[in-house]
Every structure is written in C-alpha cells, then in structure tokens.
Amino acid sequence: MKKSYIIIGAIGIIAILMAGFLVGTIFLGSNLYSKRVYDEGVSYDVGYGGAPKSDAYPKTASQSYTESSQLNPNDRKVVKNGNANIEVENFDSSLSKIKELAINFGGYVTNSNMWISSTDTKSGNITIKIPEKRFDEFSDSLGQIGKIKSKESSAYDVTEEYIDLQARLKNLKNQEKRYTELLDMAKDVEDVLAIEVQLGRIRGEIESYEGRIKYLDNTTSFGTFYINLYEPEKITHEWGIKDAFDKSIDAFIASIAGIIILGGFFIPIVILIGIIYLVVKYIKKRGKK
Predict the structure, then answer these.
(1) Where are the bilayer-spanning segments (predicted)?
(2) Could you say which of 3.10.450, 3.30.70, 2.60.40, 1.10.10 is the CATH number of the domain covering 54-157+222-230?
(3) What is the pLDDT of residues 48-60, one digit of tens each?
C-alpha cells in the first residue's frame, strides 16, 4: 500500500512540474535568457541596421523648390544619404579599412559602435561624412570591405530653397539697414520704440535664415553614409556544458513560475469550494437540530 502511495505521489509531483513548465513556457517564453544585451542595454539581432533609413530625407524636393533645371549643375545644392549592410570576415580589420577608405576620399568618421553576440561574433555600425562630389565613388568602393547584403542612397535637391533663402536674407538686411537709418534720425521716444520693435523682429528672422543657410551648407558639402558591419554567426556542432546549464536554469525558472501561476489560479477556487462546503455542512447541521 505504501509503495503505491509513493508511486502516486511521484506521478503527482511530476505532473505538477510538467504543468508548471508548460504554463511557465506559455506565459514567460521558452528561453528566459536567450537575449544577450550589449551596447548600453540595447539588444540587437545579427545584421541589425542601426542607421536611419535612406528615406529620412524625401527623394525629391518640396513643391516650392522643384523648378531648378535651369540652374548650373555645378552650383546645385544636394543633400546625399546612404546606408549599407556588409557581412565581413573580421570586424576589427574591416572597421579599420573603412576608416582608412573614408580618409582617402576626404571624409571622416562621426560615430561608431560595436557589440558582441552570444556566439562571440562582432557587429557594429559606423557613420561617415564624405564630400558630396565623391559620395557616389565612395559608395561604389564599399565592395572591397566585404560582402554587401544591401545598399541604398538618396539625394534631396535643396537648390531652390537655398537660393530663396539667400534672396530673403538679402531683403531683410536691406530692411535692417533702412530701419537703422530711421532709428538714427528718430527723436520721438514712441517712434524710437516702434522702430526698435521692427529691428528686433527683422534681426530675429535674419538669424533664422542664416542658421538655415549654414545648415544647408554643411549638409550639402558632405554626404552621410551609415554602414552596418557584422560577422556571420559561428556554426557550433556541440551542445556545451554552459549552454546546457543555461537551458536547465531556463526550464527550472519556467517550471517554478508556472507552479506559482497555477497556484494563483487554483487557490481561490479551493478556498471558494471550502467555504461552500462549510456553509452546506453548517446548514445541514442546523437542519438536523
């Protein structure tokens, strides 16, 4: 009899553990530690393209600045952007090669980062500024870095906007000059205050236009290329003690979590059944009296 109780108890414990594992897996996921976090707490997939998409700038200019075909091509202002995903054999040497390539084209690096996956393969991205006139040539040369998985570029023509801003700026500076002359001639305090208000408004607009022109000068002189480098994932043919240990921890936590979840579900039901049983028993007892 005792032996049968032991067998039934063992089967019950196994059933509870299996139910807990099943529930824990459903609610918490099959692998609690599968995501390894790098690069200041952000998890990335292999081949992640951390760079902005090439459609960050419109492919064509806005409606106000589309008629620029009559301008000299050498005087055009174009914002160029590109991005590429490249698979490399060795991340470190490829990163150094890209930096050297950027210098050879008259460019420079503005940002770079790197992270390591759970299989010890390296990935990262690098942002490079390349002179606008050599941007396409630099793009064509990326094949020597590694196997290009994807590459795209975009060009945003801001020529008309640039010319329009210069014309507006010239007009505002002429207005500033006239108001300054009027200020020198004004004798009434009320006139002086009114002129100063207008001068403040004009000078604020001048600063805004000058800032925009400076920005366009900077972004059209150098194009921006975002490059993502990654080594191919290593293929392993053995399970490994560490991996097995990690998996066992995952399974253990999933089972315990599942049992807790099941307990949270069934305990209120058991309590309710117990309360109903006591009430029914109490009523029957009163009836007999």
Answers:
(1) 7-28, 252-280
(2) 3.30.70
(3) 344 344 344 333 3
